[in-house]
Design a protein that fits this description.
By secondary structure, this protein is of the alpha+beta class. 50% of the residues lie in helices and 14% in strands. The strands form three sheets. Strands 4-5-9-8 form a four-stranded antiparallel beta sheet, with no helix packed on it. The mean pLDDT is 92.
Length: 391
C-alpha cells in the first residue's frame, strides 16, 4: 500500500476536495462553452488556481488551511491540487486563470523587476497566461524552432507561429520561446503582454480538454524591449533549452496527477451509478482502484524527486506515461459497466473518455516520455527498477 501523506498534505487534499464539489456541476457547461468559466471566478478552487505558484515574497498570502498556507510552489502540493480538481472536473481546472507553466518559467528566468511585474499583475486580478513553445510541424523540438527574434534598437521583433498552446486565445501574459541566433544556445524566452500589436491567438477545435482553449498563435513583428528578455542575468546555458526542460520537469508530476484524477473520476462514477455489481464486475472495479492508488504513489515519488532536484524529471516521465495510459484505460473500462450505449446515455463518462485521450498529448506524448526515461537509464540517473515504473 502507498505510504500515507503527511498531515499537512492531507489537510490540503481534504480542503481541495471540498472545493472540487463546486466544479463538478460545471463539467458539461464548460465542455460546451469554455468561456463559461468567466462566470465562476469567485469559486474557491478558481481563486486558488489564479495565484497558485506565486512565491510569498511577492505578496502572495493565501488563506490558511489547518494552520498552513499553501502557495503551490512545490510539485508535491501541485499534484494534490491537480488530482483533486481534475477528479471534480478537469475542464474547469484547465480553464481557470493563473500562472502555471508561464509562472514557473518566470520564476526560473525572471529578474526581480520581471517577477514583480508578472506576479503583481496576477495578484491584482485573475488573468490567463500561456507558455508558447510548440510550433507547427516541429513539435517541441528546440533545435527546429523557427520563431525568430530580429534585433532592433532597444530590443527585437518577434515573428513566427506557435501551435497547441493552452489558453493562448484568452491569455493576457505570455512566455514565448524563439530563436535569436543559430544553435541550442540561441533559444531565448521573452515575456510579453498579448495586447502588444502583432500578437494574435485563436482557439483550435478540440475533442477533449476543451476548457483549456488549446490555441494557435501568429506573431507578426511583435515589439519586444530588451527588458522583457528573460534570463539576461543568467549564463546562456541556463536560458532557453535549460529553462523549458526545467519547467516541464517541475510541472510534469502535476500533469500526471491530472490523469490520475480523470481516472479516479471515472472509477467513482461507476461506484455512484452502479450500486449492484456482479462478482466479476466488482473484481474489475477493485482492480481499477488499486491501479489508481499505485499511480498516485508513483506521482508522489516523482514530485518529491523534482522538488529535491529540478533536473530529476525521469521519474516524472514514468509517472506521466503510466498515468496517461491509466486514464484512457479506466475511462473506457468504466463505459463497459453501462453497456454499448454508455457514452450516449452518460455524457459525463463520454467527456471523461475524451479528456483522458487528450492526456497522451499534454506536456509531451508517450514517446517523448519514453525517450526521457531511457536517456535517464542510459545516463545512470535511474536504475532498471526505476525504468520499469512506467510499465
Amino acid at each position: 500500500m502507498p505510504a500515507p501523506e503527511d498531515a499537512r498534505l492531507a489537510a490540503l487534499r481534504g480542503r481541495v476536495r471540498e472545493w472540487g464539489a463546486d466544479l463538478r456541476p460545471l463539467a458539461l457547461e464548460i465542455d460546451r462553452d469554455p468561456e463559461a468559466i468567466r462566470h465562476h471566478l469567485d469559486l474557491p478552487a478558481v481563486r486558488f488556481l489564479a495565484t497558485m505558484g506565486i512565491p510569498a515574497e511577492f505578496g502572495h498570502v493565501p488563506e490558511q488551511i489547518d494552520g498552513h498556507r499553501f502557495r503551490g510552489v512545490t510539485a508535491l502540493e501541485r499534484t494534490v491540487v491537480m488530482e483533486e480538481l481534475a477528479c471534480a472536473d478537469v475542464g474547469a481546472l484547465v480553464a481557470s486563470p493563473g500562472p502555471l507553466l508561464a509562472g514557473v518559467a518566470v520564476g526560473l528566468l525572471g529578474d526581480d523587476r520581471q517577477k514583480e511585474w508578472f506576479y503583481g499583475r496576477l495578484l491584482a486580478e485573475p488573468l490567463w497566461t500561456c507558455f508558447a513553445l510548440t510550433e507547427p510541424d516541429r513539435g517541441s523540438d528546440a533545435g527546429g524552432l523557427d520563431s525568430s527574434l530580429t534585433p532592433r534598437p532597444g530590443g527585437a521583433l518577434l515573428n513566427g507561429e506557435k501551435r497547441y498552446v493552452g489558453n493562448a486565445a484568452r491569455a493576457r501574459l505570455a512566455v514565448v520561446f524563439a530563436r535569436s541566433r543559430p544553435g541550442p544556445l540561441g533559444i531565448t524566452a521573452v515575456l510579453l503582454d498579448t495586447d502588444t500589436p502583432g500578437f494574435h491567438a485563436e482557439p483550435l477545435g478540440m475533442l477533449g480538454l476543451r476548457g483549456a482553449r488549446i490555441s494557435s498563435i501568429v506573431m507578426d513583428d511583435v515589439d519586444i524591449p530588451h527588458e522583457n528578455f528573460l534570463g539576461r542575468h543568467l549564463p546562456a546555458t541556463r536560458r532557453g533549452v535549460w529553462a523549458f526542460v526545467q519547467t516541464f520537469n517541475a510541472l510534469r508530476p502535476g500533469v500526471a496527477a491530472i490523469a490520475v484524477g480523470i481516472a479516479r473520476a471515472a472509477w467513482e462514477y461507476v461506484g455512484d451509478h452502479r450500486r449492484t455489481l456482479r462478482a466479476g464486475e466488482r473484481h474489475r472495479l477493485d482492480s481499477m482502484g488499486r491501479r489508481i492508488d499505485a499511480a498516485r504513489h508513483l506521482v508522489r515519488r516523482a514530485a518529491a524527486a523534482v522538488d529535491a532536484r529540478g533536473s530529476d524529471g525521469h521519474t516524472a516521465s514514468a509517472a506521466k506515461l503510466r498515468a496517461a495510459r491509466l486514464a484512457e484505460e479506466v475511462t473506457l473500462g468504466a463505459c463497459e459497466f453501462f453497456g454499448p450505449g454508455a457514452r450516449l446515455a452518460h455524457p459525463v463518462l463520454d467527456k471523461l473518455a475524451r479528456d483522458a485521450r487528450a492526456m497522451e498529448f499534454l506536456e509531451g506524448t508517450g514517446n517523448m516520455q519514453r525517450l526521457n526515461l531511457f536517456q535517464g537509464l542510459l545516463g545512470g540517473k535511474i536504475d532498471r527498477a526505476g525504468a520499469d515504473l512506467s510499465a
